[in-house]
Structure formats: structure tokens, C-alpha cells
Amino acid sequence: MALKAIETRYKGYRFRSRLEARWAVFFDALDLDWQYEPEGVSLSVGNYLPDFWIATVHMWAEVKPVPFSKHENALLYALAKETRFPALKLIGVPENKPYFGFTDDAGFEVEFCLTNHHNYPRKEHRFFCMPGCDEERRWADTAEAARQARGARFEHGQYGAAW
């Protein structure tokens, strides 16, 4: 039996799942400007509606509860390549760890550190990118953002630091 996602409201958006809303809380906690499902894109491999546009870092983000299928990877890579903006693969609830994605010029996955360390995303308009995201480089702001996202209780109008 397939589980049905719980539609969730947050910051004026109606998210298709609570998981997507948790990622929005995570982005807010890192002080990143984002839009949810901003616009569909016609790609060579088919039409695609990305979950997020993270304006601060000029990057797409797609959220899944489980690892991406081969087809989903192909779509996300085409999104990065054809729009010329990187695309993040966000699997599961936000954690203090590196995440993988695609850039427009690499045919392989690239590692990104989702942190606002020293306001880097606003200064450089990108996240830290490989190869520097190892076990020793976990960020306090990312840990706090993940804590807020996991602790969000949307059903009571509470989320992030507010609870």
C-alpha cells in the first residue's frame, strides 16, 4: 500500500507534502530566498516542474522521500544542463550533511554543502561545492536549520524556531 503525502501549508504556499514544507523551513533557517514550484520547464526529455528555485544560490532543488530513480536523475540532469543552473537532489528530511546534485557542465553528480557559513551563499550566489564537504566540515548553522525543519509542527501553525 503506497503512503499518501500530507498536503501542508507554510508561508502562503500549499506544499504537496510535509517533506517539501520541511525543506522550506530549512531554507528559511539558512536565510535563503526560495520559491516553491515557480514554473514548469519544457526539456528535451519531457516537461518538468522543479520543487524549488533557490534564488540566493541560483539553483534548482528537487525533494524526494527515497533515492532518485534513473529516470528522475535523467530529468534533473537535463534540468541543470538545459537551464544552465545547478540542480540539487534532496532526499529525505534535512540533515547536516552534504547533498548531491548536477551542474550544467558535469555529467556526474557533484557534492554541495548547504550552509550559510560566513554568508557565503549571498556573497558568492552558490553553495560550497566539492571536494571540501567531508565529515570534519559539518556546519553549526546547517545543524540548527535541520533541527528547525525536523521540529516543525505545521498543523498548529508552529514551525522552525517559533515552536
Structure, described:
The chain has 163 residues and is α+β, with helices and mostly antiparallel strands. The protein has one domain. The protein has 4 helices and 11 strands. It has a 7-stranded mixed beta sheet, with helices on both faces. A two-stranded antiparallel sheet has the order 1-2. Strand 7, helix 2 and strand 8 form a beta-alpha-beta unit. Helix 1 packs antiparallel against helix 4. The radius of gyration is 15 Å and the shape is globular. The N and C termini lie far apart (33 Å).
Domain module count:
1
Oligomer: single chain
Taking the sheet with the most strands, its summary is: 7 strands, mixed
- What percentage of the residues does DSSP assign to strands (E)? 15-25%
Order of helices and strands: EEHEEEEEHEEEHEH
Which outline best applies? globular
Q: Trace the largest sheet across and list its strands.
A: 3-6-7-8-9-10-11
Amount of helix: 25-40%
Taking all Cα atoms into account, the compactness measure Rg is: 15 Å
Give descriptors for this structure:
163 residues; alpha+beta; 7-stranded mixed sheet; two-stranded antiparallel ribbon; 26% helix
Summarize the structure.
The protein has 163 residues and is α+β, with helices and mostly antiparallel strands. Helix content is 26%, strand content 24%. It has one domain (33-152).
What order do the helices and strands come in, and which of them pair?
Blueprint: E1 8-10, E2 13-15, H1 18-29, E3 34-36, E4 41-43, E5 46-48, E6 52-54, E7 59-64, H2 70-83, E8 87-91, E9 99-102, E10 110-113, H3 120-124, E11 128-129, H4 140-151
Parallel strand pairs: 7-8
Antiparallel strand pairs: 1-2, 3-6, 4-5, 6-7, 8-9, 9-10, 10-11
Helix pairs in contact: 1-4
